[in-house]
Write a structure and sequence with these properties.
This protein is an alpha/beta fold. It contains twelve helices and nine strands. The chain has helices at residues 13-25, 38-47, 57-61, 76-83, 101-110, 153-165, 175-202, 208-213, 219-222, 230-239, 241-263, 267-282, and strands spanning 5-9, 30-34, 52-53, 66-69, 92-95, 115-116, 119-121, 142-145, 169-172. The structure holds nicotinamide-adenine-dinucleotide.
Length: 285
């Protein structure tokens, strides 16, 4: 099935990047955009990355072959319900949410009888909003698709081809597994980064200006992602609660081991740990 008309709901970093990438790589695909914020719609109009901007969600999706919801995870169901009156039967409904099991369930519940194929491009920056997007965001990045076992093969193939055309490499897995993988590779690192910034800001012995001045000692690189959008990340942690809590439990156990080694002066333990983890880190490009 061919994708000739695309609707993007939510025109922030990811939605606007999709629209820009489609214009750059699939110029024959007509892109309609919609955002619940009138300010964002105005900004998108000025930036000009959509062929058409709609002023309501149902109008935006009319005649679309593919609809991509690029709104915060907690807003997916509302966004889906708002667009439902305009959906055609053949339309593939997908999303870009950073967690998948809950989002898939919410979209299917909000859109009974429609075809929902969740997806997650593993690509982003710590910036948000329509001006932050760019056409090359997905190039060389993974996009994970989490179709239900009974999803029609031609629709999965069409969605796979769409993301490949934007430069991504597509992987398919079940939604629960996705959520566990992303809990450790993305969600836990964000939680730790947010925590460290909070800890540093509350230390009585170290001033904020000292933290900023000496941040090249690790703090700056390590905490870049703590500048990410608070609403998006609030929703990710609420939506992926079980997987995040499971990985956090393991992380706490490991941190306690290192804490004990430092307290006991166990240099062998620390060196062995750092040698092993350095080798793993160096194997990640
Ligand atoms: P963003 O804050 O830049 O943009 C989100 C946009 O959605 C905003 O413009 C907002 O007004 C709009 N919106 C909110 N509710 C809406 C609704 N009901 N209808 C229409 N528009 C609505 O956020 P983003 O970084 O583009 O994230 C969007 C989605 O992409 C999230 O689900 C996030 O989990 C996922 N994601 C983000 C990243 C990242 O690094 N930022 C990476 C991969 C996936």
């Amino acid at each position: 099935m061919a994708i000739e008309r695309l609707a993007v709901i939510g025109l922030g970093l990811i939605g606007s990047s999709i629209a820009r990438a489609v214009k750059a790589r699939l110029p024959d695909v007509a892109v309609t955009g919609y955002d619940v914020s009138a300010d964002v719609r105005d900004e998108a109009r000025l930036l000009g990355f959509c062929d058409r901007l709609a002023d309501d969600a149902a109008d935006a999706v009319r005649d679309a072959d593919l609809v991509i919801l690029a709104v915060p995870v907690g807003g997916m169901a509302d966004a889906a319900r708002a667009m439902a009156p305009g959906l055609a039967q053949h339309t593939i409904i997908s999303d870009v949410g950073s967690s998948k099991a809950g989002v898939g369930a919410a979209l299917r519940a909000a859109l009974p009888g429609h075809l929902v194929i969740p997806a997650h491009p593993v690509a982003g920056t710590e910036n948000s909003g329509p001006a932050a997007g760019f056409a090359t965001l997905f190039e060389g990045r993974w996009c994970i698709i989490t179709p239900a076992p009974d999803a029609p093969g031609d629709a999965v193939t069409a969605l796979t081809g769409f993301w490949q055309a934007l430069g991504a490499t597509v992987d398919t897995m079940d939604a629960e597994h996705h959520d566990m993988v992303l809990a450790v590779t993305s969600h836990l690192p964000h939680l730790i980064a947010y925590t460290i910034v909070g800890t540093a800001s509350e230390l009585e012995e170290v001033t904020e200006s000292e933290v900023i001045k000496y941040s090249a000692g690790g703090f700056r690189d390590f905490t870049r992602i703590a500048a990410s959008d608070p609403v998006m990340w609030r929703d990710v942690f609420l939506a992926n609660k079980d997987a995040v809590l499971a990985t956090l439990q393991r992380f706490n156990e490991d941190l306690t081991v290192l804490q004990q080694a430092i307290r006991r002066g166990d240099g062998d333990k620390l060196e062995a740990w750092f040698t092993r983890t350095r080798a793993i880190r160096r194997s990640i490009i």
